[in-house]
Write a structure and sequence with these properties.
Elements: H1 3-34, H2 41-56, H3 63-83, H4 90-111, H5 118-129, H6 132-141, H7 149-171, E1 185-188, E2 191-194, H8 195-217, H9 219-229, H10 231-236, H11 241-263, H12 273-287, H13 293-313, H14 318-324, H15 326-343
Antiparallel strand pairs: 1-2
Helix pairs in contact: 1-8, 1-9, 1-11, 1-12, 1-13, 2-5, 2-7, 2-11, 2-12, 3-4, 3-6, 5-11, 6-11, 8-9, 12-13, 13-14
Length: 344
């Protein structure tokens, strides 16, 4: 392996790591607020990519009808929870779950065939996909808010399987690509970095800084984190725990949609592509500790580098090598935790 190949592999690793960092950031965001390991985050990435690709081709995306269906399901779930004594207003619930999808649908039907440009298509795709996350929270996770992490994980697996099936129904088995935000490439010595890759890296860095600052220094961010630590205590001091979950899932939905929009110009995306991407983002989040945004980003870059070099040395086993990297991390943390308990 000469120096040029080494640099190329490192470049690919950093670019892939930036993609996984976007997933890891959203996973850490949801977990720190709701204790949910949101496995379906990968599906939101795939849906965002496929929605953007459909709009780029001048078509009405199938995810539009999925949004409407999830909105109706979220409305029914919200009505049931209110009748069971939960907090909330039917008017606000209808506005968030029925009127919003109706407005987005009307806008999409008008704008989709007009080719509004890359920015307009990206905004419209985000408006279609991002609300799916809070709707999923209302239907699948809010009724289980007091359950254990294991129960929430099982629910997340069920939602993932359902979303993969829905993706096949609404998008079909074909793969899609789309136009990117930036054409051409930037030369850095012997390396040629695609302009779209710079967008991905820049977005990962901006989101890391924004989330770190929001949860570390703002009052609202600390209130959201308090919800995951002690939901009862958070309610006693006036924090709306249900709204905290909706905020976290909404942010994660927006990040997932944006991630898909950024990566679909660089690779072909299928309805089930999100699972493998999300699993690598989950690996990075676990290595980073599921609590630190800078740690998640650094771990994601590490996962990308391991994958890149593994694909050069043993391409048939690169996925095995990447996912095996999580084992020593878990062992070290388990041993460290056991020593801490013995000292106490």
């Amino acid at each position: 392996m000469d120096g040029t190949i080494l640099l190329i592999l490192a470049q690919d690793g950093v670019i892939n790591g930036a993609v996984y960092a976007l997933l890891a950031l959203s996973l850490v965001l949801v977990f720190t607020v709701t204790r949910v390991i949101f496995i379906p985050q990968g599906e939101l990435v795939a849906f965002g990519a496929l929605t953007y690709a459909a709009l780029d081709a001048g078509q009405v995306p199938g995810s539009l009808w999925l949004l409407c269906g999830l909105g109706v399901a979220a409305f029914l779930a919200g009505v049931w929870q209110i009748r069971q004594g939960g907090q909330g207003s039917l008017w606000r619930l209808g506005l968030e779950t029925l009127l919003l999808p109706a407005g987005v649908t009307a806008m999409t039907l008008v704008v989709a065939k007009l080719h509004p440009g890359v920015v307009g298509e990206a905004v419209l795709a985000t408006l279609i996909v991002a609300p799916m996350a809070p709707y999923i929270y209302r239907v699948a996770f809010q009724p289980l808010a007091e359950a254990s992490i294991l129960v929430l994980l099982i629910a997340a697996v069920g939602v993932h399987l359902a979303m993969v099936g829905l993706g096949l129904v609404f998008f079909g088995p074909e793969g899609y690509r789309a136009n990117g935000f930036a054409e051409g490439a930037v030369s850095l010595g012997e390396l040629t970095v695609p302009g779209q890759a710079l967008w991905i890296i820049g977005m990962a860095a901006v989101l890391m800084a924004a989330l770190f600052g929001f949860f570390g220094f703002s009052l609202m961010g600390r209130a959201l984190r308090a919800t995951a630590v002690n939901r009862l205590g958070a309610r006693l001091v006036g924090i709306a725990t249900a709204q905290s979950g909706l905020v976290a899932f909404s942010l994660a939905g927006g990040i997932g949609a944006l991630s898909g929009i950024l990566i679909v110009p660089m690779t072909t995306i299928y309805f089930d592509s999100g699972f493998l991407i999300g699993l690598k983002g989950f690996t990075a989040a676990i290595i980073g500790g599921m609590a630190s945004y800078p740690g998640a980003v650094l771990a994601a870059v590490g996962v990308g580098l391991v994958e890149s070099f593994a694909s050069f040395w043993a391409s048939a086993f690169k996925e095995v090598i990447v996912f095996t990297a999580i084992i020593p991390v878990l062992l070290i943390r388990a041993l460290a935790g056991r020593q801490g308990e013995e000292e106490e």
